[in-house]
Write a structure and sequence with these properties.
By secondary structure, this protein is an alpha/beta fold. It has helices at 3-19, 24-34, 39-60, 62-71, 92-97, 99-102, 129-144, 166-178, 190-203, 212-224, 246-256, 367-374, 404-419; strands at residues 111-114, 124-127, 154-158, 180-184, 207-210, 236-239, 260-266, 270-275, 281-283, 288-293, 305-312, 323-332, 344-349, 355-357, 363-365, 379-388, 391-398, 424-429, 444-446. An 11-stranded mixed β-sheet has the order 4-3-5-6-7-8-9-13-12-11-10, with helices on both faces.
């Protein structure tokens, strides 16, 4: 660790977190101790935290106060983690309908968030200071598994545009001190990617962070042009937000000359699991209980595939209890050779984000179109189908909050700016968006071959 990195990780970033009333420093230190507990000890810790969490929720969250009363559910009488199954599953429909009742009456630092819309169903929800502290601590711990730390040079390849509002300017100043550089992966044209590669070469980061599709796209472009990137001293590439495919991992590792560390989670569900250098996906067991359910909503044993359901124990201000992620995965009782007792996700089949192609041949990340849709009121779900360079179809499931008169011109304007002014945008309103033949849902489908 360099002197500067040590200064940032032990002085600058802790001061930043204290200023924001986050307890991430203390929590990370605790997690670096509890990760070595045995599986049995971790389950006992989870049970203690679950009882305290549900007791707090019963006292302060109107939705669950009423639900517990209806079910005659007593948090202080929980004897095992299996007792959690006495509570119903929670999905996006319940949170949408009862959002105000999900807020704790003593919530601290509650902020509005929304999911990225990767399922085609954006969700508005709220996060308190405690939850943020826990997620930051969990990510920080996982980062340190790879012998890098906050303060090491980092390039973040992300799909959100850089907006220079007051808060964003402060964030840019903070990132400069932390040596974090953001590359907006909105547009992936050959010219843009050439620029990204030059930035990576100039900075020589210790770590990369971004979508696997974006990182592998950059790697493939560099390889095609004979650009050498495996001599920059990059120690690890962290990927998240999409399913990581084997071909993507291989491409990234080969071109950048570093291992790929997969991460799994979401804005709503939290920092669920992260890969260690031994190759296993460790669940953040101190914060999160993971269940796998079948099509009949019954909990499945380890080694069986089903939907991933999470209970986040640090969401007392806006609880996520038995929350359906919509992703498919497999748990295992196997233990990792690294020695950590944290439980493992054997397999994750998360949703994927596709690329789309503008009329001039520019390759765009799917999120370039999703951002306008996820923030419009009244859109319950959507699907973008690019038939060819001249025609793109948008399917929308709407509710009473949707204003067709104001929303359609905005959608048309953004889509045409991204895809081309002469592209025909067909907007179709459906009662339900059909899934693929495989049964999976793809929120962006492009029929244009790269």
């Amino acid at each position: 660790m360099s002197v500067y990195t040590k200064f940032v990780s032990t002085v600058i970033f802790p001061l930043h977190e204290r200023f924001k009333n986050h307890e991430s420093v203390r929590l990370r230190k605790e997690m670096e101790q509890t990760q070595w507990l045995s599986p049995k000890e971790l389950k006992e810790l989870q049970l203690q935290k679950l009882k305290a969490f549900l007791t707090d929720v019963e006292q302060h969250v109107p939705y669950y106060r009423q639900l517990f009363e209806q079910l005659d559910f007593k948090p202080n009488q929980i004897n095992s983690l299996a007792d959690l199954r006495k509570l119903p599953l929670t999905g996006k429909p319940q949170i949408r309908q009862y959002a105000e009742q999900f807020k704790a009456d003593n919530a601290v630092g509650l902020s509005r968030f929304n999911t990225g819309g990767s399922s085609g169903e954006p969700l508005i929800f709220y996060i308190g200071t405690q939850r943020v502290s826990h997620d930051v601590a969990a990510k920080w711990r996982a980062t340190r598994w790879w012998e890098v730390d906050i303060g090491d040079p980092e390039i973040v390849i992300w799909g959100s545009p850089i907006e220079l509002g007051t808060q964003d300017k402060i964030k840019l100043i903070r990132d400069k001190f932390l040596r974090t550089y953001l590359i907006p992966a909105f547009e992936m044209s050959a010219q843009k990617v050439d620029g990204f590669i030059r930035q990576i070469q100039a900075m020589r980061p210790k770590m990369l962070f971004g979508y696997p599709s974006a990182l592998s796209h950059i790697a493939a472009h560099a390889e095609k042009n004979g650009t050498i990137l495996n001599n920059l001293g990059i120690k690890v590439a962290f990927v998240t937000s999409e399913r990581l495919y084997d071909y993507q991992r291989e491409k990234i590792e080969t071109v950048f000359g570093c291992p790929v560390a997969n991460g799994y989670g979401g804005r709503d569900a939290g920092f669920i699991a992260h890969q260690c250098p031994s190759g296993s996906m460790h669940i953040t067991a101190e914060d999160i209980i993971v269940e796998i359910i079948d099509k009949e909503d019954q909990v499945l044993p380890p080694e069986e595939e089903g939907e991933i359901v999470i209970t986040h124990l640090a969401t007392r201000d806006f609880p996520f209890i038995r929350y359906r992620t919509g992703d498919v995965g497999v748990l295992t009782d196997a233990q990792c050779s690294c020695g950590r007792g944290l439980p493992l996700l054997k397999e994750i089949q998360g949703r994927t984000t596709d690329f789309i192609v503008a009329q001039d041949g520019t390759v765009l990340h799917g999120l370039a179109l999703i951002y306008v849709l996820r923030d419009l009121p009244g859109i319950e779900s959507f699907k973008i189908i690019q038939h060819n360079l001249a025609e793109t179809q948008l399917q929308i499931v709407r509710n009473a909050d949707y204003n067709q008169e104001t929303s359609e011109p905005l959608i048309q304007d953004v889509f045409k700016k991204r895809l081309g002014k002469d592209v025909k945008i067909d907007i179709e309103y459906l009662a339900e968006i059909p899934k693929e033949q495989s049964g999976k849902f793809r929120y962006v489908v492009s029929h244009i071959k790269s």
